[in-house]
């Protein structure tokens, strides 16, 4: 039993470093074609295009994000759509909102906080 606890603790500590990114980093959703197919690579020290691929955006999908020490928020939207989807580190929910704006206009280009506060109010619904 002690071996399982030690192994689990080691995996938790090593896994958290895989998602490390500079504190205060942000990414702006553009939806103009320049951020299509963006890929997220992970590495404990410095991620590059040759390190482990964590995820890749589909064609036409943009992403906006913010990170701080111990937290993150992500928002995605398709360039021809009026729905945006988001999540953050402190929630197991996905959030969705629909806008009356012109398709391709980012609903939330850059999240403002690393928690679910961007997804509160009547516009965002938990899925």
Give structural notes.
It is built from one helix and eight strands, in the order αββββββββ. The chain has one domain. A six-stranded antiparallel sheet has the order 1-4-5-6-7-8, with no helix packed on it. With 127 residues, it is α+β, with helices and mostly antiparallel strands. 18% of the residues are buried. It is 13% helix and 31% strand. The chain has one helix at residues 2-18; strands at 26-27, 39-42, 52-56, 61-68, 71-78, 83-88, 95-98, 124-126.
Count of structural domains: 1
Rg estimate, integer Å: 16 Å
Biggest sheet layout: 6 strands, antiparallel
Number of strands: 8
- Taking pLDDT < 50 over at least 5 consecutive residues as the criterion, the unreliable ranges are 1-20
Major sheet strand order:
1-4-5-6-7-8
Mean pLDDT across all residues, rounded? 79
Query: Count of helices?
Result: 1
Shape: globular
Give the terminus-to-terminus CA distance: 38 Å
| Helix proportion range | 10-25%
The amount of beta strand, in percent, is 25-35%
Order of helices and strands: HEEEEEEEE
User: Which class of secondary structure composition applies to the elements?
Assistant: alpha+beta
Brief sketch in words of this structure:
This protein is an alpha+beta fold and 127 residues long. It is 13% helix and 31% strand. The chain has one domain (2-126).
